[in-house]
From TrEMBL:
Role, per record: F(1)F(0) ATP synthase produces ATP from ADP in the presence of a proton or sodium gradient. F-type ATPases consist of two structural domains, F(1) containing the extramembraneous catalytic core and F(0) containing the membrane proton channel, linked together by a central stalk and a peripheral stalk. During catalysis, ATP synthesis in the catalytic domain of F(1) is coupled via a rotary mechanism of the central stalk subunits to proton translocation. Key component of the F(0) channel; it plays a direct role in translocation across the membrane. A homomeric c-ring of between 10-14 subunits forms the central stalk rotor element with the F(1) delta and epsilon subunits.
Gene3D superfamilies, alphabetized: F1F0 ATP synthase subunit C
Main subcellular localisation: membrane
Site, as annotated: Reversibly protonated during proton transport: E54
Species this protein is from: Nesterenkonia halobia
Full protein name: ATP synthase subunit c
Domain V-ATPase proteolipid subunit C-like positions: 8-67
Length: 67
């Protein structure tokens, strides 16, 4: 029973990370579409947001297999 609950938690974490990544890049595209000259400023922020959202999923993956 514990293994199944770990995998459900991992699936929820993956879904949350996917939604977060989608929101980060949607905001990035929206910002660049409104002000193309701000691309140099917004791109590193978008990549940082992507990395942080992906790190949450990687931690959830590790915890799911460890527990």
């Amino acid at each position: 029973m514990d293994g199944n609950l770990n995998m459900i938690g991992m699936g929820l974490a993956g879904t949350g990370a996917a939604i977060g990544i989608g929101l980060v890049f949607a905001a990035y595209i929206n910002g660049v579409a409104r002000q193309p000259e701000a691309q140099r400023i917004l791109q590193p922020i978008a990549l940082l947001g992507f990395a942080l959202a992906e790190a949450v999923f990687v931690l959830a993956l590790v915890f799911a297999f460890v527990l």
